[in-house]
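Entry 14. Two folds queued back to back today. First construct below, sequence then structure tokens.
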Amino acid sequence: MYPFLGSDKILASDVQRGLFVLQQSFSLPNLPLPVSWGPFTATAKGDKIELNWSTYAETENKGFHVERQNQAGKFVRIGWLEPEPDQTYSFVDQAPHPARNYYRLAQEDWDGSINYSRVVSAALVARADAAIVPNPSQAGAIVTLQNEEAWNYPLRLYGPDGRCWRTYADRSQPLILPSTLPTGVYVLMDDTGWKQKLLVN
């Protein structure tokens, strides 16, 4: 009756006024996402925080802005990483806030559009209380670490002459001092270079 309307379905009409309400069907194009996010983690390492992430797929990816939340609650950019062939990334925040830090990634396309990751966080542990006990100690004794989470394994025990007497690679194992340690001042150093003195009587 109204061929100019094509095959669309007429839901309502007012012929005298020439008004028609049509139902049209259409589909949106299946556009790929700019990135498919993989794992994203934040880990405190000494007085720094390391971010690691990966993606499952990337399309038109220009790179990643690393953003950290400031004291006012606003995310500000602190770093930039360009795409990697293996789609695996790492970034170290050299100057995080003293307490808990919140991070997100802003992935930028070549057309300038931004795609945000989820938010992750990590907290620095105060190292002032990360002491070795007992201290002084004795050769062959077992020592423990207060605030052990502040230490980054492996740990190495150095003598007064700079010799490495023992490496402690596993956090779950007790810290047993070598039974042949001579008397002196030793240094227990973690993987970040942070250290504490240990007196052996």
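Second construct, same run, same settings:
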Amino acid sequence: MAVVIPAHNECVRLVEAVKSIVDFNQAKAKFYIVDDASSDGTKEAIESYLKENNIPHQVSRNEAGKGAGFCRNIAFANVTEEYVLFLDADDFLYPGMLDKAVERANESGAQVVLTEYERVHDANDKKLGMNPLDEGILSRLTSAFGQSAFAMKDAAYALEIANYPWNKLQRTDYCKEIGLRFSSTPVHNDVFAHWLILMNATRVAVLNASFCGHRVSLYSNQITNIADERRMAMLDVFAELDDYFVRHPELKEHFYHIYTSFKIRLFHWGMSKIDNAHQEMFKDGFCRTLESMTSRDFFDLSKKVPNIALDVLRYRMRQM
């Protein structure tokens, strides 16, 4: 079992994240941790804890900040264990949940196990539940497939589940086979990886239990809260996925309509985050990402999701 964690100035919570796995699971994990130019002694703190407790690990440090996606990529390149979990330094696993996820993967033969999670308020540890959309998707999957594994092409709607890196456990050989990588962007580095993992999967299972606690803060320096020009990098991620669909028409046939719906929804979320100084540039850039859509793409979209096709047309005509 491999656990990959990027970290920047998380000397306390990184240790807590690792302890949540080591102290409450039978599964033996090796930790691949990349300190992204921290100034608070993050690397020293986690190395001290791991060495004192004889926990297998590989810890490295970037002298200049490279971003979470870059860190995940260089760590994952060295992973050889059967399963891999991508965790954030400010999150944690609930007791015994890693064991349950591995058991679920073993019994189902799944390449990917999707999990429930809890959002936890950073200030008072209040549990906020899952995002309502994710809750609905996981409930729908359970109703449709029960405990059986399924191919993602038979449940394309599940691709709209939040693109967190930590709400899924995956087999390492599968991730290597599909060429998994995270984007080297300052925001949304996990979107491309999320879609690669799920679109290509032919055996997916669901774990109906809260696997991970995700700390939420409205005022911290979490990537979610970035509102300046770095939010524009969302457009670079769209470009990566647009290009991937061009190179993989067999996936485009099944998933492009879901992707377009997701793309518009994520853009709307981005508009609510980005500062006023960059909104028009952001909107114009998004409209330009839709110009690569072919007539065949638009025709297929209008048959499957006519309301989304209408939105695309309005954006391309700059009427929204």
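Quick look at the second one. The first strand starts at residue 2 and ends at 7. DSSP finds twelve helices and nine strands in the chain.
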